[in-house]
Amino acid sequence: MNHKFDIALSFATENQDLVEKVYHYLKVHNLSVFFAPTNEAQIFLTGRNQSEAFYEVFAIKSRYVALFISEYYIRKEIPMEEANIALLEHKNTGRVIPIYIDGTRLPVSMLNPRERNYFQSNNPAEIANHLAEKVRMEEKMEKESMVSGHNVMNVLGNKGTKQIFVQTWNGSIE
Known about the structure:
- A five-stranded parallel beta sheet has the order 2-1-3-4-5, with helices on both faces.
- The chain has helices at residues 16-28, 39-45, 50-61, 71-75, 77-89, 124-146, and strands at residues 5-10, 33-34, 62-69, 96-100, 119-120.
- It has one domain: Rossmann fold.
- It contains six helices and five strands, in the order βαβααβααββα.
- Helix 1 (16-28) packs across helix 6.
- By secondary structure, it is of the alpha/beta class.
- Strand 1, helix 1 and strand 2 (33-34) form a beta-alpha-beta unit.
């Protein structure tokens, strides 16, 4: 899937200073980031139905979603709507990364107990490095699976129930 953003950042406005620092660190990593206060994000959001725009950003257009969980986050309607969209659409994929910044946790009913894809920190550089590493690791896996020595493309998510054959330049089928 072709995503517009490598990662979308979901946060409560009270935590915007921290998240803005994370955003700048992620940009240094050359990642495309949805961060609502930016001009690009505001242009995308302006004049649109809020729920539809959130669904598009947090479910379709972003490869990963980082939820900056805090006491403010879980009390606010908009961040929790963003979290619900991301968790419902990306369930069991490891693409939603709760970042616990003050010890507050998401309600247990929202989480998959088998997933351990959370991170706890309030250090912007550390958070950005963790997120960038996740994105880069997936990019590396995708490249390796698409350019294998056997000329067979292994599509991410293929659980081995399908076999894909590729015709090579010399005409043989593998």
